[in-house]
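Renewal narrative, Specific Aim 1. Our central claim is that a sequence can be written position by position from structural information alone. The example that follows is taken directly from our test logs and has not been curated for this report. It begins with the C-alpha cells describing the chain, in the order in which they were read.
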C-alpha cells in the first residue's frame, strides 16, 4: 500500500498505540522530543523534518520506509 507524507503521522500514532507505547516511551528510545513526535502524529507542519529522524521513529516502532519512483509502465497506467 502506498502512503503519502500526510499519512505518516497517522500511521505512527496508530502503530505506537497498537504497541501500547506512550509518546514518552518512543522518544526515550530515539532521542527525539515529545513535541517533535506529537507534531508528526498530528500531521502538523513539518517544513524541515530530517529524513533520518523520521526513519529512526519508524524503525523504533518496528517499521520501515520505502521510497519508490514510478517506472514508465506505471506512469502510462495512471
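The sequence written for that structure reads:
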Amino acid at each position: 500500500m502506498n502512503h503519502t507524507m500526510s499519512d505518516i503521522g497517522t500511521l505512527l500514532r496508530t502503530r505506537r498505540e497498537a504497541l501500547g507505547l506512550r509518546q514518552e516511551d518512543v522518544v526515550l528510545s530515539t532521542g527525539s522530543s515529545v513535541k517533535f513526535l506529537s507534531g508528526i502524529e498530528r500531521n502538523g507542519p513539518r517544513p524541515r523534518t530530517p529524513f533520518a529522524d523520521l526513519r529512526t521513529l519508524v524503525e523504533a516502532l518496528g517499521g520501515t520506509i520505502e521510497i519508490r519512483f514510478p517506472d514508465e509502465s506505471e506512469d502510462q497506467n495512471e
